[in-house]
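Action item from last meeting closed. Structure (164 res):
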């Protein structure tokens, strides 16, 4: 199947058909770049599946999010694999467990879960850190506008300071 949608990062047509596989099924794409959402749509993957770019040992496979761009013009054919992920996981924010049914969580969503609301004001300062995450993002600090992949029993620490 050949998808000919035009996206800003894919404006330049290569003049070649670039093959890739998803779970062993061959697909072709006419542009150099493809993103995770386009791959999911072509392969008919559910919203609850995870997509990975197969990487040779000893390296780890790469998690592909919906906005992740992949260069299909590299010398080798790219091979993707999908796995059905748990539809609902439990994440822990400031010691409180929450059910979560998405693959990712944003900085804003962490704050809203922790404090019930997010006040976008210069006097409100929020921080969010995490640990026990998946291989793609095992631990770290989140910034406003950032999202991270989640896994069951992932722990988040959120703080809120009113500087008024």
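Sequence:
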């Amino acid at each position: 199947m050949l998808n000919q949608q035009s996206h800003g990062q894919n404006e330049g047509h290569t003049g070649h058909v670039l093959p890739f596989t998803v779970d062993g099924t061959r697909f072709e794409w006419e542009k150099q770049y493809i993103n995770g959402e386009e791959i999911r749509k072509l392969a008919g993957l559910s919203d609850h599946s995870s997509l990975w770019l197969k990487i040779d040992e000893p390296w780890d496979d790469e998690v592909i999010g919906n906005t992740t761009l992949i260069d299909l013009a590299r010398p080798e054919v790219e091979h993707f694999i999908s796995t059905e992920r748990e539809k609902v996981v439990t994440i822990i924010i400031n010691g409180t467990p929450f059910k979560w049914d998405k693959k990712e969580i944003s900085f804003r969503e962490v704050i809203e879960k922790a404090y019930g609301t997010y006040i976008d004001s210069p006097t409100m300062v929020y921080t969010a850190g995490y640990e026990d995450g998946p291989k793609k993002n095992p631990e770290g600090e989140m910034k406003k506008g950032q999202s991270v992949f989640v896994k069951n029993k992932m722990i988040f620490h959120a703080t809120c300071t009113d500087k008024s």
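Note appended to the action item: The two ends are 57 Å apart (CA to CA).
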